[in-house]
Amino acid sequence: MGSIDDHSFSAPPEVVSAHGLLFDFDGTIIDSTPAIVKHWHKQGNLIGVDPNVILATSHGRRSIDVFKMYDPSKANWEYISHEESLIPKEFGHDAVEIPGARKLLETLEDVNAPWAVVTSGTRGLVNGWLEVLNLAHPRTMVVAEDVENGKPDPTCYLLGRQRLRLPDTAEMLVVEDAPAGVQAGKAAGFKVIGLTTTHTLEQVKGAGADWIVRDLTSLKLKGFQDGKVEIVISDALVN
């Protein structure tokens, strides 16, 4: 997405290192946009709100925060967890993996590198999609229910580092597609790789991403040694 042509995504390979990687989920590891659109059409019709109004502000945000705006009576985890757990079951054919996701996650798992999913989705939603798409299951996750405030609040990413049992001084690399998530990663003090999978280039750049790539095919694991994960970033946006 975005208005800059493909030739601008031609930066030479760059090796970056971090003590661990923190991935957003939807839009970063998978793309379930058609399923989420159907979900919010269903919810909008139930609560009497134009689904397009909801969809204009919902991506990258927790459902509980969306419902607080449009129908506070449904802004509770019992309702939201149940409804989100149905999405992969009802609309499972409407999601695909982001190009490069499967290979990158499998290589991280192969060397036992520290990585986690930090998402605005509920646990049932994430686990459902991982099963449908048969992707590597993270041993560490931070989900919507785990934090008081969602992205762009940085708490979720700081909690991700903590759950990986890394010290407060550990350098982390965040991979995100949504501006709110990019802002959360930066507010946590981490470097952020932004993907243009769901938002325009201008939106991702404006959120403050340190590197911008089209998808996860631009990220390759170079190695994991001495407590540092080395990632090669190729074909990033030329600044």
TrEMBL record:
Tagged with keyword Hydrolase: yes
Gene that encodes the chain: HOR2
Source species: Cladophialophora carrionii
Gene Ontology MF annotations: sugar-phosphatase activity
Keyword Repeat: no
The entry's keywords: Hydrolase
Protein name: Glycerol-1-phosphate phosphohydrolase 2
Highest taxon, organism lineage: Eukaryota
Residues making up the signal peptide according to the UniProt record: none
